[in-house]
Amino acid sequence: MPASAFFTELRAMTGFAGRFFREGFRPRYEWLELLNQCYAIGYQSLPLVGITSFIMGLVLTLRLRPTMVQFGATSWIPVMVGLTIIQELAPIITGLMVSGKVGSSIGAELGSMRVSEQIDAMEVSGTNPFKYLVVTRILAATLMVPILTLLADAIGLFACYLGINLQGVTSVALFMNNILGSLTFGQVLPAVVKTFFFGFAIGLIGCYKGYNASKGTQGVGVAANSAVVLSSLLIFLLDLVAVGVSTAFGLI
Amino acid sequence: MPTASHHIRLVLFVLAGLACLAATLVLLGQRQNLFGSSLAVQADFRNVSGLLTGNNVRLAGITVGTVKEINILNDSTVRVKMHLDRDVQRYLHQNAVASVGTDGLVGNTIVNLTATAAPAPLIAEGDVLRTTNPPAIDEMLKTLSVSNKNLVGITEDLRQITGKLNGSRALWELLGDQQVAANVRQSLRQAASATATLQASANDISHLTRGIRQGRGPAGYLLTDKEFAGQMRHATRQLARSSSTLAGTLGSLQQQVQAGNGPLHTLLTDTAMSGQLRQTSRNVEQGTDGFNQNMEALKHNFLLRGYFRKQAKKQAKAKKEAQAAGQ
After folding, report:
1. Could you tell me the residue range of the domain that residue B75 belongs to?
2. Phi/psi at A137 (nearest 5 deg)?
3. Is residue B234 part of a domain?
């Protein structure tokens, strides 16, 4: 039955997350592995995230311009693009890109370790594989996605600035004043906070799918694929929840 | 695999991201005056037209603070609490007027603070500012439609007036006449000289009144000398005393007249006395009559006759000389 299968899966995933919180904050900590994962998840995703957010900032500005010219509101382009990038576009793009790049790699990596029985070997040899493999990856994803999002904000706004200067002229000071003048903490903080949840979701789904892979090499592919699909979907769901919560708190 | 250079790059990457966040938060905080100490003031509005917490407060068009709290006090009062920059306290007085406006035609709702010209103490923490309701657009449009109707009537009348003016020959002659201008100039010049004269008279009058006030001249002396008033009072007092004495004298005289013992009463009221008086005077008349006859007889006496003749002759001579001088 699909419904019961869904709930079984959900329960298993919740149990996996609970295990992360139980084991993750107890010594001993795998600091070096955490740094390595941060490097792999954060730093190595930066070019991808940077390029996509640069292109999105530029394209959004150029696409928006004709409409804004019709309204005679070209001075509002920085505000509109800035709000769009900071509130939605940069978190979503970063989340999707990281889930595509990192979620699949985590799923494939852990999945292949599972099917080649390396995880079982670690358990036998006395290393806690959950701590070493899962906790470090989830923590790294949770910490790195917000940083990537902030850099994506900066790159996207820079692209917007370039896009405006392609067809018109504006100064950096005026551009920043325009954006900051219409920005509030209620818009910035939810956008930053929700990216932690995005990162957590990406790491959790990737690790869960890989850690629980089965059925040989085919299972590795299934794990990688379903990790990407599920984490992308979850990012959008979390975004929906974030907008609901921030509206309920009056931060919009 | 894991090297030190990786870690350095990772640290730089994280620092760059955190720097972006920090810069955004600090810049936003500066704008919303979160880190500086703020000055809380309030204003009661009847209608805040969609004002939200966090909207800007402007003084003379400069953003000086934000709206912190909006509460409904009762069905016609909304209390808005604002946090202003401390630096602005020096420029804001207690009689400043707050009004709700918009940033541009369709922009954010804002609170405008407007200074009033009258002097007032500087604003302090917790003061409640006066408010005005800015004109609503629909009401302006309503008024505008009435004004437009009036304008149509006015312009129609104006067209008729200009038509009539154009058709009037007398007016154009008046306007074209050079003589009129000269006359007007002449009249104006005379008016100017008249006013100059008037000015001089006014000056004189003011001079006079100043003199009087300072006690110069007889009028001034009369009006300003204090001793004169004292003397006047003294004189009138004396007069009053004399008149009272006179009244007393008259009273005693009247008493005497009426009392009956005095000679005056006898003179005025005794009828027998008057009869005797009349008899006496008749006797005197008869006596003088007799005396007259005696004197006439004496004239013809020889002793005195010569003197009278001489007298008559002298008289006739003087008469004759007077007649000769008249001719």
Report:
1. 27-134
2. -70, -45
3. no
Asked if the structure places residue B259 within a domain, the reply is no
For the stretch B193-212, pLDDT in tens is 999 999 999 999 998 888 88
Percent of chain B with pLDDT over 90: 22
Q: What is the pTM of this model?
A: 0.60
Q: Which residues of A2-17 are buried (b: 16+ CB within 10 A; e: fewer)?
A: eeeeeeeeeeebeebb
User: Which chain A positions have a beta carbon within 8 Å of B29's beta carbon?
Assistant: 185
Query: Per the domain annotation, does B222 fall within a domain?
Result: no
Q: Please indicate whether, in this complex, the C-beta atoms of A42 and B14 are within 8 angstroms of each other.
A: yes
Domain count along chain B? 1
Residue burial B148-177, b: 16+ Cβ < 10 Å; e: rest: eeeeeeeeeeeeeeeeeeeeeeeeeeeeee
B57 within domain boundaries:
yes
Nearest to A36 among B2, B31, B53 (CB): B2
Quote the ipTM score. Answer: 0.82
CB–CB contact B31 A188 (8 Å)? no
- The model's pLDDT over B62-115, given as tens digits with 9 standing for 90+, comes to 888 888 888 888 888 888 888 888 888 888 888 888 888 887 766 778 888 888
